Amino acid sequence: MTTLLTLEQVTKMIQNESDKNTTILDHIDLTIRKGEFVTVLGGNGAGKSTLFNSISGTIELTSGKLYIKDKEVTRLPEEKRARHIARVFQDPKMGTAPRMTVAENLLLAMKRGEKRYLLPRKLKAQRDSFQNLCASVGNGLEKHLDTPTGHLSGGQRQSLSLLMAALTNPELLLLDEHTAALDPKTAKRLMELTQEVIEDNHLTCLMITHRMEDALKYGNRLIVLENGRIKLDLNAREKAQMTLEDLFVLFEEEKAQLI
Amino acid sequence: MVISAIAQGLLWAVLGIGIFTTYRILNFPDLTVEGSFPLGAAVAVTAIVNGLPPVLAMVLAVLAGMSAGLVTGLLYTKGKVPVILAGILVMTALHSVMLYVMQRPNLSLLNHPRIFNGLAFLPNYFDAVVVGLVVVSLVIGLLLFFFYTSLGQAYIATGDNEAMARSFGIQTDRMKIIGLVFSNGIIALAGSLIAQNNGYADVNGGTGVIVIGLASLIIGEVAFKDVTLGERLISIVIGSILYQLLLLGVIRLGFDTTYIRLFSASILAVCLMIPQIRQVLKLDTLIRKEG
């Protein structure tokens, strides 16, 4: 399998009020290969979100290097990396433009990473395909093509965010606890949709989750972060042998250490 | 007098539309307005006095306004100066620019041609109504075209949800600069129109104009809810006319025009509070019950 993303000694430190440096990511080395679906677990403050922000370019690294395929992207701004990397956020409000309609949002997503010219947007030409795409979700999104996304339910907005993120078959999909703000039933349905979208489009994906059962059920690799380091990195075979109890024990240990 | 107020409303509406493109779409207040508006007036009047035809003078005014917007945009996006401060800085600096352009604090258009002259055959004030209608339609038409291009959609998305826009590869800094450039170009156009209507330009002509522009915007929003983008732009024009009619009414009632700004500010303050007042008095639920 070809290498898609490489992190070399990635470190992020921030200064707190007393001018002490806090290390959030501590010299992380990580290689993601094409086609991997990695679930990422870790307690609060383990550095999961910072890891994603570093990969997507939302924050600058203190040190270390980042490569997409063979190209170094450490200094590449977020909007340029967006050509390769798509992201779904935890907060349903963050993934869509609230005053723009569902169709307009999808059209924005279709032009991921492209230059946006002073030419008519040509929404009509895409309507049918957007209609079909939304209908495939099965939560009534197709009836709201012309509704501003701010009026949609959280579940509808998150599934739209997911469709938008996956629309152009990005090389890497980052899911940042994208089901965490939803009720259990809606979250379950969104996870099933996620699985479908990733399989159908053969996407490479990193998914942060708080639900250990999801971390075990989905994906073909599991990473556990602790204090800014990778504590555990399981391949598909090892992951298949892992049980929920094992994971609980692992996290209990972590808690015990903290106390 | 009513025709005069309508004419004023149409001309000032251009300012409201200019403010809308940043204040409502990008969601930040741009104080460059109070500099780019009189700058447009100063440039246009100086150009006309120096023998340029009014249309060309207005084009120069727009370019001047766009440059002012560009400076604010660069300070804000590249220099990371807070946007309000960037606007104040440019507004302050423009005072000197205007003095340089006009070589004096104010300049009269007495005995010089104006954009309204070609329509002198029309009855009083109707020339301004026609010019106002043409300019407002042109500006709205161009803006609507822009909003519905790929670039325009990226621009709207930037104001709507910046984090999301960036995650889809939209260069949000560039969008903000484009917005400030367009907005201040439109505002300078408004300044050049008002100056020709008043017959002079003054370096202090910008004081309080942001209140007039916002008033038309907010009155339009309070009067018309849940409308499309095109209707929203038209509602600003209607808001601007309503505002001028309100001013006219107050002057008719014998209000001392010396203190007119207090009244302008009060109208805006009341309009801004209307959503809150409605909520406190539960007017919406009352109306619904009656309905």
TrEMBL record, chain A:
Its main location: membrane. Gene3D superfamilies: P-loop containing nucleotide triphosphate hydrolases (3.40.50.300). GO terms for cellular component: plasma membrane. The keyword Hydrolase does not apply. SMART domains: AAA. One of its GO terms (molecular function) is ATP binding. Residues 5-252 form the ABC transporter domain. It holds the Pfam family ABC_tran. Keywords: ATP-binding, Cell membrane, Membrane, Nucleotide-binding, Transport. InterPro entries: AAA+_ATPase (IPR003593), ABC_transporter-like_ATP-bd (IPR003439), ABC_transporter_ATP-bind (IPR050166), P-loop_NTPase (IPR027417). It comes from the Bacteria. It is found in: Cell membrane. It is a peripheral membrane protein. Coiled coil: none annotated. PANTHER family: NITRATE ABC TRANSPORTER ATP-BINDING PROTEIN, TAURINE IMPORT ATP-BINDING PROTEIN-RELATED. This is Putative ABC transport system ATP-binding protein. It comes from Alkalibacterium thalassium. The lineage of its organism: Bacteria, Bacillati, Bacillota, Bacilli, Lactobacillales.
From TrEMBL, chain B:
The keyword Protein biosynthesis does not apply. It comes from Alkalibacterium thalassium. Its main location: membrane. Pfam families: BPD_transp_2 (PF02653). PANTHER family: ABC TRANSPORTER PERMEASE PROTEIN YPHD-RELATED-RELATED (PTHR32196), BRANCHED-CHAIN AMINO ACID TRANSPORT SYSTEM, PERMEASE PROTEIN (PTHR32196:SF69). Keywords: Cell membrane, Membrane, Transmembrane, Transmembrane helix. It is found in: Cell membrane. One of its GO terms (molecular function) is transmembrane transporter activity. It is a multi-pass membrane protein. The chain crosses the membrane at residues 6-26, 83-102, 128-156, 177-195, 207-224, 233-253, 259-281. It comes from the Bacteria. InterPro entries: ABC_transp_permease (IPR001851). One of its GO terms (cellular component) is plasma membrane. This is Putative ABC transport system permease protein.
